[in-house]
Amino acid sequence: MKIKSLLLFLSLISVSAFSQDKTIAYRNADNEFIGKFSSKENTAPLPPPSETFHFLKSYSLNIRWRTYMGEPLERYKFNWERSDGYTIKVDGIKRSIKSEDLKEYPDLLKRFEEIRPTRVDLKLYGTAGGRTKDELGAFSVGKITIPSEQTVNFVSYTYIVKDDDLLIGRSGYSRSQWVDSAPETWNEFLNWTGGFKSFNIPTNEFKRLPSEDQSKRIKDIKSIWKQINAIQMQGEIENIEWPELEMINIIKTYDRYKNKKKSKKTESDDDFWNGEDEKVTKKTENDDFWSGESKKNTTVDFWSGKGSTEEEVNVQKSIATATGNQYIGQKEVLTKRITISYYDHGEIDGDRINIKHNGKTKANNVTLRSYDENLSLDLEEGVNRISFEALNQGSAGQNTASFTVYDANKNVLYTNEWKINTGFKGTLLLIKL
Known about the structure:
- The protein has 433 residues and is mainly β.
- It has helices at 106-114, 203-208, 211-227, 244-258, 309-317; strands at residues 20-21, 23-26, 33-39, 56-68, 71-82, 85-90, 93-98, 119-129, 144-146, 151-153, 155-161, 175-178, 191-194, 197-198, 230-241, 287-288, 293-294, 326-333, 337-344, 352-357, 360-367, 373-378, 382-390, 401-407, 412-417, 425-432.
- The protein folds into two domains: 20-241, no CATH class; 266-432, no CATH class.
- Strands 2-15-8-11-13-14 form a six-stranded antiparallel sheet, covered by helices on one side. Strands 1-3-4-5-12 form a five-stranded antiparallel sheet, with no helix packed on it.
- The two termini are 26 Å apart.
- Keywords: Signal.
């Protein structure tokens, strides 16, 4: 899930969703700027669940900038705190859950506490000037001489700290690192504006400049950096993404626990998937449907994903299946990409599975965990055969896998649980329109 431009404003008069500390970083004896900005707890009521699940309660970013061999060097430490719950769409319905709801289910509470953003991009901005810490007056960082203009004025900057440059831990924990690679040139570091001039330009434009113009621009930017003694730091979240499938699955698993519906299906073949009576036939030598090798003499290779729905209906009538295998059904899909979430819904006892797409193994010998793991696939035009195979039976009995298939818009295409013996499969046909 993305929340574009989650803005953080410092306000002394009005109440905002977040209040933010502005700090000033000073050049120290090692020619470093070390600073921090942070958000505080919400000072306004939470917006309705339809607007946000409001899982981010507060965050802070520690910043350390310096130069090394004439080039900029960056180090960041990101820390965030979660609220006590979130709201998110589950099968098209807004649902909320809090940590307190999960206290009687330690496995779900642990998964809840492990949730962290999968991506965070931060936008930094502020003013900078030449005053030292001793000279600094309230709300003023001083002025510098604007390169090429020889006028004295304020300067301001913007800068995007990308997700690749941050180490994001769980709520309440923080880690830091020096950014592996320095900006390509000073043009890609802080974007400076002073007087009526912007000193940085897009990278593709910079590369098209004659070398002498590039050198002149870099010289001006370095001149600004050398004059700066104080940098006022502010920030906002430019982009944040969350592990939406995991958050959805926590709620769905909670529902299953709460309603005591954990794996009450029978072990008969006819009640294998949702109690639906599926027609099966004896295995013939003409077709080996469950091995993924079609031996029919057709002009179109149906299982390549290029057959028609009509062909699928005809082939379905003569499916050859070993006892325990199951044709799950078919579903039309509009999106090219799907995601398969899977976990062990029974005892965590070492159950292993394979997942195949049109006969090709995509998840090989995977050991099922108590939490969701995800596999993303790109569908081919036409028919796509997704097969789930039980490779073993764990120490507690039958293989107890749970599968949920989502399209690219997080719509559920299929979901179910099984109890199955070693070597048997269930196959779902997805028709990519």
